[in-house]
Amino acid sequence: xxxxxxxxxxxxxxxxxxxxxxxxxxxxxxxxxxxxxxxxxxxxxxxxxxxxxxxxxxxxxxxxxxxxxxxxxxxxxxxxxxxxxxxxxxxxxxxxxxxxxxxxxxxxxxxxxxxxxxxxxxxxxxxxxxxxxxxxxxxxxxxxxxxxxxxxxxxxxxxxxxxxxxxxxxxxxxxxxxxxxxxxxxxxxxxxxxxxxxxxxxxxxxxxxxxxxxxxxxxxxxxxxxxxxxxxxxxxxxxxxxxxxxxxxxxxxxxxxxxxxxxxxxxxxxxxxxxxxxxxxxxxxxxxxxxxxxxxxxxxxxxxxxxxxxxxxxxxxxxxxxxxxxxxxxxxxxxxxxxxxxxxxxxxxxxxxxxxxxxxxxxxxxxxxxxxxxxxxxxxx
Length: 381
Fold this sequence. Notes:
Blueprint: H1 2-35, H2 40-51, H3 57-70, H4 74-86, H5 93-106, H6 109-122, H7 128-139, H8 142-156, H9 163-181, H10 187-201, H11 207-219, H12 223-231, H13 238-247, H14 255-282, H15 286-299, H16 303-310, H17 321-380
């Protein structure tokens, strides 16, 4: 019976040890993610390591780079090359050479001039050169004035009005004035407003962020004052027109929208215009954009590759904290069970050793008592 109990305890120790060994790696990963959930740079690094952990890492990165090159997105391809270097993952030499050639071609004066002109004329930005053109257009105010007048006329005529673009353009005029006053001190906010506006125009603004920004934009514009400003607008008096439109901007209501624009500008400075547009596409609210800004400041040119690999999971926990906690508590339970089984096994084996010692001494004592008796019997015989 005692041997059976000892065997059961030993079996329990082996089982709990095996369970601990099985869950410990997942529990360690889960605990690391939980600790890093408020640090987007550390969180994304852990998740990228997990995604590129196995032998398929080269294949994953190669496929992503090939896809980016096919889409003529040199910035994204270069971002993946930088990510591979940071993780010491070797890429085929011919692939890195193709990326380098594409970067050189995109950096030519003619290409930059063409993209700058495109951004200046159309107001759409998807790279650094076109963003420079778009921001230049907005700094010369005709881009924002164009958008305000167009959307205001829709509003007056009772037609569908993009109030988000209207609010962003109106805010942009006020920020542009501040940019001139501070000699570029609020340039990141100016660029951020332009990027948000452009993302809205081309449908690259996330649904949740669109809803939030739309509510905020409604609050920063005095609609009646804006309609009056547009109705009296004149191309022969642009300064007066801009002043009238700017007067419709409620600066006291624009704090949240300006913070969003500033964070978008920070992403654009570190990860490029397309990095900012990628962020706006996956963000569900201003908190996501603020986290993306922290990620971009830590990861720089690798940010686009990280966002492409992880999506919104780069900014916050992809798995629920409760699900991760289960792994941690599972490991704690397995560890406690293992320690208890060790204690029980030690006690059982110690008790068994003590019992064997007692039985051995008892046999020796009985043998010692039996010897005199035998001797006396022999003498008497």
